[in-house]
Specification:
This protein has 385 residues and is of the alpha/beta class. It folds into 2 domains: 199 residues, Spore Coat Polysaccharide Biosynthesis Protein SpsA, Chain A (Alpha-Beta Complex), CATH 3.90.550.10; 160 residues, Rossmann fold, CATH 3.40.50. Strands 1, 4, 5, 6, 7, 8, 9 and 10 form an 8-stranded mixed sheet that branches. The chain has a 5-stranded mixed sheet with strand order 12-11-13-15-14. Helix 3 runs antiparallel to helix 11. 29% of the residues lie in helices and 18% in strands. A hairpin with a 2-residue loop joins strand 2 and strand 3. It is globular and about 65 Å long.
Amino acid sequence: MAAISAVVLAGGKSQRLGIDKTLLRLDGVWLLERIVEQLRTLSDDVLVVANEPYKLAPLGVPIVPDQQVGIGPLAGILAGLAATQHQVGLFVACDMPLLNRRLLRYMARLSADVDVVIPRNGSETEPLHSCYSKACVEPIAAVLEQGQRRVIHFFDRVRVRYVDPDEVAAFDPQGLSLFNINRPEDLQRAQLLLRQARQVQGAADPGAGQSARMRTLVIGYGNRDRGDDGVGLDIVQRLRGELGVQPLADGESGLERRGGGIDAVFLPQLVPQLVDLLVDYQQVVFVDAHTRPDVTGLHCAAIQPGSAVAAFAHHLGPAVLLALVERLRRQRIPAFAVSVRAYEMGFEQRLSARTATGVAPAVETILDLIDANTVGWPSDNPGKS
């Protein structure tokens, strides 16, 4: 993942909450300090946009004032982009207590090919949990000059990648990472959610790292003789290297050498006979090329049995296979689809340059999916307690 800056937007007036959000404490912990510590694990360039810097000096990070006070978050984004060291900035609000680092890393990977990466939250978008590149500076300045203040008003001038709810669910099934504190009742809910997360963490005791990972099957599939359609094999081979497992030999599927906590195999296609194989695992990651015209590179999504998550080019897709497992074996297995855009599918055993660039981000995403510490704060977001 390329270097990325991280910016906390803390210039709001907190009118609905009735108290200064920048000074919020949850269970005795300064929320803003916790957020900064989380972002420091993702970036070497963390800063806060706020208009009363003297209050936030103990954070130990640069405090940048809004360039136009009272305009709203769009001015804060502009101020943050002007001060960041890297081309892309990851922006979050100061009132988000349940940030998910895996989701943030995924969004950062998506930012390589676009100017804005923004999640959809139901029918709305979440502009204060998004990535913006410096290519947005001039368009933002232009719309502010025109008196337009909504963040989305400059989107028609830049390249935007929307992160759909099924993508968010792959990393954050409950959608808690987009939860923010706007009203007193939200503050009460945040306290409850944090206590529940700690209880789950204590019960799971995932401190053992590798031993806490769910037993996972990674299935790459496609036609290695059809150019980018074979990207699943490249991803599986690189993943096996990251896991310290021997690469697959020519013509080998990997099914013969299963038995680790994480198994990575490659098949020409998905077949019904895999039903009996899948029930041996706690989760499954399907890896393939996709042909979605609206997604230029990496795509990751949670899969539900029988649902369609991408324009795959194979007859039996992951969702149908999962439906067979549920119907024939009465078992529902958590599953995800990780795919890279295919551009050239001629008769050759070589990836196009554009598809090849998606291999490493895909492997990083898979490793995040199979990470033991996947749920909630503090397990996903360790910090001071």
